[in-house]
Amino acid sequence: MSNLPQLHSSSSTIVYPNDLQYEEKRQIWNSAIDKTPAAIAVCVTEQDVIAAVQLAKQQQWPIAIRSGGHHIGGFAMCDEGFVIDVQQLKEIDIDTAKQTVTIGAGVLAGELNAATQQHGLAVPLGTASTTGVSGVALGGGIGYLRGRYALTCDNLVAARIVTADGTCLVVNEQENADLLWALKGGGGNFGVVTSLTFQAHPIGTDVFAVDVLYDFADAATVFERAQAFIAQADDATVAVNMTVAVLLPAPFLPDFLHFKKVIMVVALYNGDVQLGEAATQPLRQLATPIVDQSGVMPFLQLQQKLDVMIPPRVNCYGTSLYFDDLTPAAQQALISVATTSPIPSTLIQLWSLGGAVNRVASDATAFAVRDAKYVLLVDAMAMNGEDEACQAWLRDLEQALRTVSNGTPYINGIVADDTVVARAYRQNKDKLIDIKTKYDPHNTFRFNHNFVPKA
Ligand SMILES: Cc1cc2nc3c(=O)[nH]c(=O)nc-3n(C[C@H](O)[C@H](O)[C@H](O)COP(=O)(O)OP(=O)(O)OC[C@H]3O[C@@H](n4cnc5c(N)ncnc54)[C@H](O)[C@@H]3O)c2cc1C
Asked: If you average pLDDT over residues 122-141, what whole number do you get?
């Protein structure tokens, strides 16, 4: 640990490559990304973040921001630049009267869900406990509550952010409202967010959820019937997640399910628990189920369902695409690519959209994609050196889905390339570049889906 420049609080540290903690601190979820920053500021308070940004400004270091460290593109780390690590900003403050929640930028989704559920409340988050709320929210945030309450970013009502000049700004509808608009989907382009305030919703602690396993051999029927059901269902109440996966051997699985390729259909009924069973019945009869564990369950149990399939750290190759509809051609293309996935630990997730997500105007927030009916998230997790096979399969997948998807990526599920910003931000791109130019003219925060400031 270095005694060179200090941050603000005594428990904060700056970790350099020769320090013992360096290897641990530079690790992120996607272990295929191996970056070696010049230094990592491990912040404990907002004052530490301000001190870290001011230090970077003096040294003219570019900054990467590390919260939950789960972005597939490894944006949380950089080569040679300065990482500001906000993982230890863990406050959670719930205002039960206003049903709002203010959190520190290091809170994880599982931690926030556990806290809000003590009051029967929930903030719409993603489906995994280990992701950072900050990264999820700033890039969108698609989870089970999307149908009624839209994206995580749509529920952001205020924030505090340290911008490139080292000042901390209050962001809400009254103050710096342009930044509030930009933070709703514009990612880590504008500064280090130290706290976020969300609208929470009184969902109670129990929900009705569909939880069915179908044989992948029935994929054609499952996709066709699921599409027909979703097209006529009330999209505010029913959010459907279909995941093609191979079940890895686990003590809680019977032998006949080991290494079986399945389609998991998981859906939340976001309404009166008593009505959920009847309203979602068709999802349990898409084909002959292998296992059907649908029923009333704690919301927290539903939120933790995917966690067992996600290693704490893994070499991951993934992509993301939206679909305007699940046409027969799209269904066929998805089945083809799922059939050829090279390794067992691949998740091919297809989630219904619509509902509140699509009722927000495409220019009302930075997050522009408000017309797609489905989003696909693909994660090929190479656990035994299958990295090249995963990358080759992913290239084939992108080619195969090019014409049947709408070609737009979900920015929280795709690595950076020259085309992503224009494809994902559509008509909002120019306004985002203007806001970037105003708050970060030298592109200090550049390790992201980057809006290059105007010269
Ligand atoms: C296992 C897994 C499951 C997932 N499930 C879902 C899901 O269900 N729904 C969904 O929508 N997405 C999901 N995602 C994608 C997820 O939304 C992104 O990976 C997201 O970036 C994770 O945020 P993080 O804080 O963990 O990541 P980080 O890598 O720490 O952050 C990503 C980037 O966000 C920005 N950022 C983060 N914190 C701040 C901050 N405080 N201030 C400014 N910028 C910041 C920075 O650019 C940062 O580099 C999943 C990802 C994984 C790996």
From this structure: 98
What number of residues does the chain have? Answer: 455
pLDDT digits (tens, 9 = 90+) for 316-354: 999 999 999 999 999 999 999 999 998 888 999 999 999
174 Cα distance to chain centroid: 27
CATH 3.30.43.10 fits 13-85, yes or no: yes
Please name the amino acid found at residue 455.
Answer: A
Topology at the third CATH level for domain 92-202+427-439: 3.30.465
Pocket test for ligand 1, best of 43, 67, 103 (most atoms within 8 A of CB): 67
Q: Ligand 1 centroid to 136 CA: how many Å?
A: 4
Cα–Cα distance, 65 to 54 (Å, whole number)? 14
Fold of the domain built from segment(s) 206-413: Vanillyl-alcohol Oxidase; Chain A, domain 3 (3.40.462)
> ipTM, 2 decimals?
0.99
**241, 353 contact by CB (below 8 A):** no
Give the nearest ligand 1 atom to 191 CA.
43
Q: Rounded to a whole number, what is the distance in angstroms from the first to the last CA of the chain?
A: 38
